[in-house]
Structure formats: structure tokens, C-alpha cells
Amino acid sequence: MKVLKTAEQQQLILELTWKQQNMAPITQPQPFLSELMMRGESPSVSSRSLTAEQMPGLTDMEMQSPASPQKSSPYLLKSVEDLDFQVPIMKRGDSDGSRVSRLSSTEITSEMSSFGDSSMSSMLSLSRLYGREKEEKILRDKFDQIVHQKSPRQSSFVLISGESGSGKTRVGESLRDHVIGAGGYFCRGKFDQHQDDPFAPLCASFNAYVQQLLEEDENTIKAARRRILAAVEQDLSSLSKVIPPLRRLMHAELERMDSGKIVCEQCNQEKGRSMFALNKLMRAICSPDRPLVMLLDDIQWAPRCPLQKLRAMVIDDMNEGIMFVGISRNDVSSTSDVSNFLRELEERDNVDITNVSVGNLRKGDIEEMINDNLLMSDDQTKSLASFVFDHSGGNPFFAVETVRHLQQDSGLLQYDKFSKTWQCNEALCKRMTDYCPKKLMEQRLRSLPRDIQKVLMAASCLGSNITLRLLEVALQESVDERFQELVKKGKLVYNESRSVYSFRQNAFQSACYGLIQKELQPAFHLEIGLRLWKHLDQDELQANLFLVLNQLREGESLMLDQKIRYEVAAMCLGAAEKAASRFSFPTASSYLKFAFKLLGPDHWNESYGLSLILHNYAAEVEFAQGDSDRVDYLIDTVLTNARDDNDKLRAYLTQIYVLGVRGKQDDAIDIGLNCLRLLDVNITPKCRKMDLLLAAAAVKRRLRGKSNRRIKMSPHMQDSKSLAAMQILNMLFLNTYVSRQELFPFVVLKMMKLTLVHGTSAISSVAFAGYGALQCFSGRIEDGTRFGQLALELVDEWGAQSYQSRVKAFVWGSIFVHTRLATELLGQLKEGHRLGLQSGDTEFAMLNAYHHMMFMVNSGNFTCKRMIDEFNQFKDLTALHGHANHFNILEPFRVAFEKISDPSGDLTDHSEDFDRFLAAAISSKNRLALEVVINTKIYFFFVAGDYKSAIDLIAVRNFHSASKYRGSVFEVFSLLLDGLSFFSKARITNDVTSRKVLLRRARECMNHVKPLAKTNPEASLSKYILLQAENAASLDKMKLAEEKYDHAAGIASRYGSKMEIAFAKQAAGEFFATRIHDYERAIRCFEDACEAFQVWGAGAAVSNLVRRIDSLRKSN
To answer: How many Cα atoms within 13 Å fall on the side-chain side of residue 309?
Structure first.
């Protein structure tokens, strides 16, 4: 469902968020709160420790103080000299540590050289990998296999795993030259433990692709432009915001689009939209001719949302010529997100996972590395290799660091100018038994000047979001010289697409973070968070919102002042809304849970507005995640504590949706109608036909003379009551459609009236989709198509991604189904299912899946196996988003086609499964579920020749439906089964009166199919002709009936419908056997039907007809 950001929420966030002040010129560095803790000062945040100037957002609430120059709080000292904090530095030669000095700024560069570009560092910036020949070959072979793989493509994923420092990234990067040599692209993204944007690594890999593409020749670039434009034209603008190089590549197309684009800030969800468009972009850029490798580093830090997006890309059978590679540490928990991701790929999706395990180096590998880089005698090389191996354990990172340290600091490895070789002091090697490269690296870091340590500690907290600006704000001092030195020495690498730096090596970042004592880490994070919050301007704060809150979350236990905790809770709402707009609901949920943790015990009285919005918003987000128990608790809490009915409306809105999803549509509708009455919007539950005609006429009058263009130019809806009413009607839209059909037109017409009177909104797209469907149900296909197109245009112009699933379900499932090709329909409905799941619009996701499966059945072009595979794909994707139970509505499809496709299956033995499905459908009053179950049972009974049972079920279906037929093309299959059952039963009925009733009902079905055959012959024409054949036979027009049977089979053959060929031939066989008594011709028809059923994959139907043929041969 759509997660809202209401006007009251925006106002509250505006009131509670601090007014940001421009950062004053930095003149003096300020110490960290953690340093003050060393002196025994209190690190807790309280109202007494912050001035009104530092917290202007609280001025009107609590802190009244006279205007005065901004003061530093007691724990923010003016100078580092206020701290008697000396860091001992071990000088070369001071092995006993007796000499302690303080480095001057001029010594920074020389001291930093031990971590960067020295003579040994240069030599060990290795251009080749040692001991990784096997791993490199596996990667090359896998790439070549993927490039040359033929359809159907086997989904695959390569996992490079190993411990920290084992060189996993270097192994992955070793594939780059091979890929480029094959004419491909190598793209990389990296996750981080402190990642602020969970989708940034995915976007970074696409950035790398576009940057490489821009270096190609003009013909290649033009071809790529055409493919990208065809695939993502509607999403190009939003994609360019997360993939900046795309604006350079597609500049002309973007300028043309931007010039005529209308943007609604309130509903603009471009970031979320771009996340959906990544799949389509991936399909456009991939091909076996120009293969692509997407390497994602450190996926052990990736949260669930980007892993879901990656999984969707991996299993997308339309991606060709792409190799997905993930790099992960091998010490992750079995319950972690990445472990679940890998299990689901392997067990649910049958993805071929290749695990490239990167272990430690052997002693011979280290010996080879030393021999290639240092000129030493064989004995010296072996002696040094043994020392390095014994003390590093073969870990590549620590092996290299060991050699570097030995050359620089220990005296163990020295260069002899006379012999021009390196000499290893073997005697010293034997005495250094307790040497540990990891501990030594930590000691070397701690021996650096305090100013350098502070930069490294702060940078380690920022993770992959390091910038000079953020570091200077966090430290409140100029760090340009120290920062540039880190960059120069290669400790920080630049991410051009995001304009940020990150650590080159995870082990080094971990060691830098280890500089902060464990008990001081919460205070350190809190201090960084407070400084970023206070000194970043509003735009900077929004860009780094996740980062700031992540820092504050680490220090939450030290925030004792409740007013500040409410401030941070309000900021969490903004972060949750930002995450939800990208459909990253787990991320949104995490910030909302942090906000709840910050609330006081009496928060409903102390901060009523914040509490109300927080509980309402959290209920919507948790429902999108499928946490039903949490949703119930949050809704009940709001309804218990809300002060009036208006404050309860939003909770009621969520409750309506939740009840609808749980199959309690009647309860949802009753609550919705009551809420509408509170807003002075009335819908009578009596549903009189005259009221419906008057409402339809009123809408028609308001539409008279208005083109689609003029409607789109209407003012935007501003009236708060009308907007609230549209939200409630939007919730009633599907509930009435599936449960109380008589109310559905009233809901749609009321939405149309509000739109035409008060202006358009994003929900107007749903109104026009429903109105277009009503036109089609009434036979006005042209009008329906017009309003369906308008609905799609409104979704696009409003950027209303959250409504795309419901609009697609009606436009492509009830309107365009009359005029568009099957391939286009199926693709759009599948996309609607995925969009609904990702945006939390679960019920409409299921409606898209229902229409998709019904169209596959109705067309008859797809084998039973293909339909089972499609069903399983839908089910797995639904389960992936936490809504596995909601797919039960379509479970009868799977059971039916498994029985039909089983050659040993008995079409009469299905009562146990389907009686259970039928009872559940009747209990839930879900019309769609009821139709799936009953139509499937009718099909079984008809094919098995049990026409009486089939007709009894038709009566059950009609009893539970408000009207028999609505005029949808998806009903053609039902109409065919009904008509054939009535005709077949009439043929064997002797009672004249009963026979007349059966024939009348059969002809009603035939007449319903006739207009559908005109508008969509592909789906309906052969069915109509087959019913005509049955009708001719009932009138004893034998010659005409014979011609119609042949004609129906011919039309079905023209459109490739094996199912309809089988039906036509089976009906013709029964005609010849029972009316003409020509058993030979009947057997030939049955044999033709068997052949068609066999191709369709209906083994059980074949077995049933074989028994019928045997019976005829015996009779003959």
C-alpha cells in the first residue's frame, strides 16, 4: 500500500527539526566527547549542556534564554591544548620506548609513509596475484560459459568468499582485463558497514558501465542510446538522478523530456521509480556480444532491500550476457541477510552458484612474491618467506604489511648498496617470536600523532561516505593536509559517481576504528552525529540524513534529555519517508523503530502530534513488510490514544487495507463507508439502479467536451477533506470489486466526481482506470481505451509509483486486453505484480497475477508446464516480499495444471483439494478466488463428461456473484465452459422443458461472447464459433454444425491455441458420436483432440479421451 507523508507530518517535522545554521569559519579544533570522558567528565547530552543558540528548534518549546553570541557547550572545549593528551611516538631505534616525543606537522608526511608510498610499498603494489591461479581460471571459465550460453539461460551467481585480508577483491578484479579483452564491461560497486544509501553500490556499478560506454566509438554509443531509450524512456529522468553519467550519455533525450515535464513535489518518488527501472536498464545494456560483469564487493554488509533487487536481476530470464559476482567474508551468520539471499537463490530459484573460496597463501606463494620483488639469495628468500608465513598465517594483507614493516622499522630487512641486494637478519628473525603483524599495525596507528588519529577514527565511522567537508564538520577543524595525505598514500579511494571517498582495505578501516576504545565508541558516534546535525545546512543534512542518524543511533544510550530525543525521533520520520519513497521498507522500519526507542514513557501527552504520526506511519510501513501482528498493535494504539475522529482517520485507512488483504472485505467496506460519512461523502449501501444511472450521467456531463489533455491540465486537488475521501475510496476500490460488486461503480463514480470538481491528484489515475474498465464492461471499448490511456499518463506525470500496480491491473487487465497483443499484456501484468509487491500494494499485485494467469489459460497458447513455471515464479517473488500467504488465491491454478498435465491423473479425482479451496473462497467472500476454484472444477467436470456436476457448480458461482457476467474478455473462458456444459447436457436430456432451459442458458453465453469476439478475435473468436457449432447441432443443422466445428478448429490453429483446437475437436467428436452416430469420424476427431492436448501438455485429458476412443471402438 502507499506509504503517506501527510501535510501534518511535514508540518511537525518542520517544527521539530532544528533550524540549521551556516557553519562559522573553523579557527580552533574542538576535542571529542570521548576525550573528555578520559578526564572523567559526563558525556551525557542534557538540556543544561546545550544552549538555545545550539538548539533553536527547542527555543519555543523549553529553552528560553536571552539573545547572545553562540557559546560552546561545556563539553566542547576551545582548543586541543585544553587537554593534557600526549600520544607517545616510538622513534626508530627507541626499541625500549624510553624516548617519547610529539611530532610536529612537518613530520606528518614522513610518519604517514609507513602506511603508504615508500620504496617497499611501491615494489609490493603488485601487478599480479600469487597463489590464485586456480581461482582466476574458475572466474575466466565461468565468464566464457555465460557469454556463450544459449537460450534458455541458466541463472547463475558467482560468490567469492574468504576471511578479511585474503585478497577477495583482488581476485575479483583479476577478471577485469579478460572481460575488457572480450569486448565487455567490468562494473563494480561496494557495500559498507556504515552505508547511508543501501542502493548506492548497485547504482555505482551502473555508473561504471555508462562511463566505460562513453569511451566507445560513436556507432556503439548511438546503438546503446537506442536500446536504453526503448527500454526506459519513461524512467530516464529518474534514472539519471541516481546514475549521473547517464545524463551525459542521453543529454539530448533528457533535455527534450525535461522541457515538458510537470513535477509534483508532494508525490514525486523518483528515487523509488529509478530502483524499479534498473531491471529494465539491465536488460537493455546486456547482450552476449557486449557482455557485462557486475561485481559487488562486501555483500555481507548489504541490507535486505538491495539484495532483493540483486536477486530479481539474477533470476530475470531476459538478462543475457551478464555475470553477477558477489564478494563476501566467510564468517557471516547463517541468519544474516546475505545468507538468506544465497539460500533463496539456490533453493527457491535454482540458481547455479559457483563458490570461489579464497584461502590463505602457501609458503611457496610468499616465497615467489618475495623472489619477484626483492633481489635476494635463495637462502635469504626462503628464510624471509618462512618468517612472513609463520607470523601472517599466509593472509595476503598481513603478509604484505609484514614485509613493509620489516623494511621500514625493524632492521630485519635492509638494502646493501654494495651488493645491491636485500639482506635478511636471520638471527633477529629467530628472536622475534612474538611478532604479530595485526597487532603491530594497530600499534603503529596508535603511535601516530593524535591529530592524524582523529582523522582516521572519524573517517572509519563515516565508512564509505568520506568527504573533506564531513570530516571537517565532524572534527570542527581544518583537516585538508591530513586528508590529502591519506588520499595520496592510497588509503582512501575516490568514488567518482558518488563524489565520496572510502577506505581501500577493510582491514585498515577496521584497525582505524579500533583506535576508539570500545567503551568510548557510543560517545564518539554521538559527537559526530550531533556536530553533523548542527553544522550541516539543510540540503547537506538531507543528503546525509541516514549517515547522521546512524551516528546518533550508536550513541542513543547517552542521549538523556527527552526533548532532544523527540527531536531525533522527528528526524527519523523524515529518514523513514525517504527510505519508503525508494521502496526500501526494511530501512524505513529500522529508522521508525529507532524513533520508538527515543520516545518517553508519557509521549502521548508530551508529544501527541509526533506520537500520532509515528504510529500511523509505522503501521503502513510494517504492513508493507508483512508484519501483521505489529500492524494490529500500532493501529489499536492509535485508536486508543487518538483525541478525536479526525485523528483516527489515517489509522482507519490502514485498517481498511489490512482487513481487505485478510479477506475481511465486508468489515473493510463498512469502516470505509463510515469514514466517508465523517467527511460528508456519502455512498448509499442500497445501490439502487436509478442512483447509479444518475451518478453515471452526472460524471458524463462533467466530462463532456474535455479532452485528455485538458483533464491533465486541471488544477491539483487542494481540499483536505476531498484528498482524505479519495484515499478512503482508493482503499474501497478493490474491496468492492472483489466482494461487493454492486458498490464498485458507486466508488469509481464518486472518485471521478471528486476529481472533476476539486481537481486531479495522484489517486485520480486509479479513478480513470476504474472508469475506463466500467466503460469496457458496458461495451464502450473505445471510450474505455481512452480513459485507460489517461490513467497511465496521470501515473507517469504525477510520478505516482505506488499506484502503478492498481492502474496496470485495470488498464492492462480489463481495458487494453480488448485491443492489445498477448505478449504485451502478459509483460505489463507481470510488471504490475512486481511493482505491487515492491510498493506494498499486495492485493493489486495479486490481481495482476490473477489476470496474467487467466489470460494464459484463456489464450490456450501456453503449455501446462509453462503455466506451472509462471505460477511458481509469481509465488516465489511474492514470498520473497514476505506475502506468501496472499498467493493462496491462485493456488488452485497450480493444483489444476499439475493434475491436468499428469498422464496418470484422474480428472474426476479432485474433490478433496478443491472442496477445501471452495470453502475458503466462500468464507472469504472473495469473488476472484471463488471464480478460480469453481471454473477449474467446471473444467474438470466438462472434460470428464460430468455435465450435471459442471452445471451445479455454475449455479453455485452465480449465487455468490452479484452478476453472472461483467463483459470482461477474461470471462470468455468461463463463458465457453458454461456454454459447452449447457449444450452438452441438453444433448443428452430427454425432458423437453429442461432441454429448453439448458439451451436458453447456453445461447445466453454465446451471445455474451459475440461482442468480445469482435473486439478481440485472438482471445474470443474461435470460442464463439465453437458455441455456434454447438447451437447449430442443437437445432439439427448438421451440415452447418460440421462446418462450424472445422471453422472453430481452423481459427484456433491460426492463433496457435492448442487448447481450443482440442476443445473444438473433442466437441466435434461428441457431435459425430451422439448425433450422427458416425463412430469413425468421431474417433478421428478425438484423436486430433488427443494430439492437441498432448502438445498443450494435458496428459490427463489425453488419457481420458483414449478411454473414450476405446469405448467407441468396442461399440463399433
So the answer is: 28
Q: Is residue 1007 within a helix (H) or strand (E), and if so which, with residue range?
A: helix 992-1015
Scan for cell 611516538, then name that residue. Answer: 89
Strand partners, 352: 156
Q: Which residue has the cell 476539486?
A: 758
Could you give the CA distance from residue 1040 to residue 1045 in angstroms, rounded to a whole number?
9
DSSP at 823 = H
Beta bridge pairs of residue 353: 157
Decide the pairing of beta strands 492-495 and 322-329: unpaired
Distances (CA, A) of 72 to 19, 473, 531: 17, 15, 12
State residue 601's pLDDT score: 93
326 CB-near residues (< 8 Å, 6+ apart):
157, 158, 159, 160, 295, 296, 299, 310, 338
Average pLDDT over every residue of 967-982: 79
Question: If residue 293 lies in a helix (H) or strand (E), which one and from where to where?
Answer: strand 292-297
Calculate ∠ Cα 688-690-692, nearest 5°: 75
Instruction: Give backbone dihedrals phi and psi of 684, rounded to 5 degrees, phi first.
Output: -75, 130
Task: Specify whether the CB–CB gap between 244 and 497 falls below 8 A.
Answer: yes
**Pair 833, 806: CB distance under 8 Å:** no
Return the beta strands (E) in 30-173 as ranges.
156-162
**Which candidate, 719, 198, 653, 231, places its Cα nearest to that of 464?**
198
| Alpha-carbon distance values, 79 to 27, 437, 450, 456, 515 (Å) | 10, 35, 13, 19, 21
Mean pLDDT throughout 3-29?
Answer: 39
And the C-alpha cell for 680?
460528508
Would you state the cell numbers that stand for residue 879, as one nine-digit string? 514470498
How far apart CA 997 and CA 978 sit, in angstroms, is 13
pLDDT band, residue 640 (cuts 50/70/90): very high
**Per-chain mean pLDDT for the chain:** 79
- Which residues touch 337 (CB under 8 Å, ≥6 apart)? 302, 303, 304, 307
C-alpha distances out from residue 482 to 32, 454, 485, Å:
18, 10, 5
* CB contact set of 1017 (below 8 Å; sequence gap of 6+): 1051, 1055
Q: Which residue has cell 571517498?
A: 501
Question: Which 3 state secondary structure label does DSSP give 45?
Answer: strand
pLDDT for 111 equals: 43
Q: How many CB atoms lie within 10 A of CB 331?
A: 10
Which of 339-353, 586-600, 813-827 has maximum average pLDDT? 586-600
Whether the Cβ atoms of residue 559 and residue 497 lie closer than 8 Å to each other: no
User: So what's the pLDDT on residue 500?
Assistant: 84
For the segment 778-784, the average pLDDT, to the nearest whole number, is 87
Q: Which grid cell sits at 570?
A: 522527528
Alpha-carbon gap, residue 817 to 812, rounded angstroms = 6
Contact between 609 and 865 under an 8 Å Cβ cutoff? The reply is no
3-class SS at 354? Answer: strand
Task: Look up residue 664 and give its three cell numbers.
Answer: 475481511
Q: What is the three-class DSSP state of 610? A: helix
Please give the grid coordinates belonging to residue 268. 514525486
CB-CB contact of 373 with 124 (8 Å): yes
C-alpha of 961 from chain center:
36
Q: How far apart are CA 531 and CA 998, in angstroms?
A: 81
User: In what order do the strands lie in the sheet containing 185-190?
Assistant: 185-190, 292-297, 322-329, 156-162, 352-358
Cell, residue 508? 585498515
Q: How far is CA 876 from the centre of its chain?
A: 14
Q: What is the pLDDT of residue 620?
A: 87
Cell of 131: 597463489
Distance (Å, rounded) from C-alpha 582 to C-alpha 788?
Answer: 26
Which DSSP helix (H) or strand (E) runs through 834?
helix 822-839
> Cell 460524471 sits at which residue?
699
* 1106 pLDDT higher than 70: yes
pLDDT in tens, 22-37: 333 333 444 444 443 3
Q: How many residues does the chain have?
A: 1116
